[in-house]
Design brief:
The protein is globular and about 50 Å long. The chain is built from 6 helices and no strands. The chain is mainly alpha-helical. It folds into 2 domains: 57 residues, no CATH class; 55 residues, no CATH class. One of its GO terms (biological process) is valyl-tRNA aminoacylation. Its EC number is 6.1.1.9. It is an enzyme of class 6 (ligase).
Length: 112
């Protein structure tokens, strides 16, 4: 995973990619953070499964009223998440792989 991430972050279309050990080490550290975050989220989901099943009868879609009732921080995070999804989708559709890795890393490290 770290090698794949390192290759994506340093890819420039049409150019050879120099790859240093430091780049791979940084990618490994970030991949570990993603793994730990995912493990935490899955653990919390399992702990709260009954509560989530009762509350999430409509899946992950929220009505305008539900969004307005959310605390400001949750609304801001959902909005930022939608922006990240749009940005990454557009980059991938354009076969541009390095920019979405930067956007995702910034989102995970700074916002999530």
């Amino acid at each position: 995973d770290a090698l794949r991430y390192a290759l994506l972050t340093s890819s420039v279309a049409g150019q050879d990619t120099p790859l240093a050990q430091g780049v791979i080490d940084n990618a490994k550290s970030f991949a570990n953070k993603i793994w730990n975050t995912g493990k935490f989220v899955l653990t919390e989901l399992e702990k709260n499964q009954a509560k989530l099943s009762a509350e999430c009868t409509t899946g992950m879609t929220f009505s305008d009223d539900e969004i307005r009732a959310m605390p400001w921080l949750e609304r801001a995070l959902i909005s930022k998440c939608h922006g990240v999804i749009e940005n990454v989708t557009q980059s991938l559709l354009a076969n541009s792989f390095a920019p979405p890795t930067k956007v995702l890393k910034e989102f995970i490290q700074e916002d999530f």
